[in-house]
């Protein structure tokens, strides 16, 4: 039978089946290979998910195992999870993260919750996608101090990983499949509905206290200026700002990427969700409490030529500062 004849016979069978109600005997789809959608909290839109890396249970599980496996580091002592703990909302509670050989990194660990919405990664925005993100810590001598190609060699020799990769991507371990699996897992991580969300999206007027409502009104006012940078459902506009933390910056921030002096001291505006669990704060973890954060902004920050025009002396009263802190805490979910 030639290909054309075979195609005609198959087409005829389909037509007959349609006319007389016959059905094909379907091969069951493995549930682990079915595309799944994330379970999102109130007010969250569907995140962008690449067509070539859709979420499936097998891919998410493979990424989860890799994320928690120190096999990614040179001496097999450091995993992605070493700096991103579930009980700390995927941060590590340290001012600066600790990597291989006990080395201290240069920045505070950013939460990976809601990372699917991030247009770029890291405090300086130096990586454009979650698929590329894992390359930075693997190659950083202060974090994992390894090489992605050597990681792949380890995974190919591993007694379990080759089968898991074929199950998830129908391919052997490679830089391509490794980075995509971890990105898939990271796109499965979301915060949950907060009392603020219930107040705004479910019209539950009892969800916030009187103090939290006053703090919310202050937060969204021109007087406090907070909402100009911390906007949207994630409370960030993803811009890069110098908030006057220092007069001289040991870490040049965004300028490390752009080499533009106007970007010195600028860092990505972080999300304010789950602040109750993600101390210490700022790119270098230099502020230990929310009280210190509010005092910093109330003071107007240090003088720096790149400081944002929205960082001004606020002259808040003690009650206003406490109201603002109480509101910020309502953005956390337990």
Can you summarize the main beta sheet?
2 strands, antiparallel
- What is the alpha-carbon Rg in Å? 24 Å
Averaging pLDDT over every residue, what do you get?
92
Helix coverage percent:
25-40%
Q: Strand tally, please?
A: 2
Strand content: under 5%
Strand order of the largest sheet: 1-2
SS class: mainly alpha
N-to-C SSE series?
Answer: HHHHHHHHHEHEHH
CA(first)-CA(last) distance: 65 Å
Number of H/I helices: 12
Pick out the low-confidence regions.
1-25
Quick one: overall form?
A: globular
Descriptive notes:
The protein has 334 residues and is an all-alpha fold. The protein has helices at residues 3-20, 57-67, 130-133, 135-139, 148-157, 161-169, 175-186, 195-201, 210-219, 255-258, 290-299, 318-329; strands at residues 240-241, 267-268. A two-stranded antiparallel sheet has the order 1-2. Helix 9 (210-219) crosses helix 12. The longest helix has 18 residues, at 3-20. The N and C termini lie far apart (65 Å).
């Amino acid at each position: 039978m030639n290909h054309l004849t075979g195609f005609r016979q198959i087409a005829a069978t389909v037509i007959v089946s349609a006319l007389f109600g016959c059905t094909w005997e379907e091969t069951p789809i493995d549930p682990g290979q079915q595309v799944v959608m994330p379970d999102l909290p109130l007010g969250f839109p569907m995140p962008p998910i690449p067509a070539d890396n859709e979420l499936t249970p097998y891919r998410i599980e493979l990424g989860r195992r890799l994320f928690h496996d120190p096999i990614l580091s040179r001496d097999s002592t450091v995993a992605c999870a070493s700096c991103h703990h579930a009980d700390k909302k995927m941060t590590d509670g340290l001012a600066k993260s600790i990597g291989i050989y006990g080395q201290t990194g240069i920045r505070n660990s950013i939460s990976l919750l809601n990372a699917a919405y991030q247009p770029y990664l890291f405090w300086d925005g130096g990586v454009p996608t979650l698929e590329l993100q894992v390359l930075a810590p693997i190659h950083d001598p202060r974090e994992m101090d390894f090489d992605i190609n050597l990681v792949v060699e380890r995974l190919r020799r591993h007694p379990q990983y080759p089968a898991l990769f074929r199950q998830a991507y129908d391919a052997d371990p490679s830089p391509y499949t490794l980075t995509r699996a971890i990105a898939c897992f990271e796109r499965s991580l979301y915060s949950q509905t907060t009392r603020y969300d219930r107040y705004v999206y479910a019209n539950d007027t009892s969800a916030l206290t009187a103090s939290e409502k006053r703090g919310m009104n202050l937060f969204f006012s021109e007087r406090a200026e907070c909402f100009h940078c911390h906007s949207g459902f994630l409370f960030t506009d993803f811009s890069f700002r110098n908030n006057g933390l220092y007069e001289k910056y040991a870490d040049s921030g965004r300028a490390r990427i752009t080499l533009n002096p106007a970007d010195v001291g600028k860092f990505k505006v972080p999300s304010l969700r789950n602040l109750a669990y993600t101390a210490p704060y700022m790119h270098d973890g230099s502020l230990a409490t929310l009280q210190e954060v509010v005092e910093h902004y109330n003071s107007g920050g240090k003088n720096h030529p790149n400081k944002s025009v929205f960082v001004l002396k606020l002259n808040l009263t003690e009650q206003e500062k406490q109201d603002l802190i109480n509101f910020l805490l309502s953005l956390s979910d337990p």
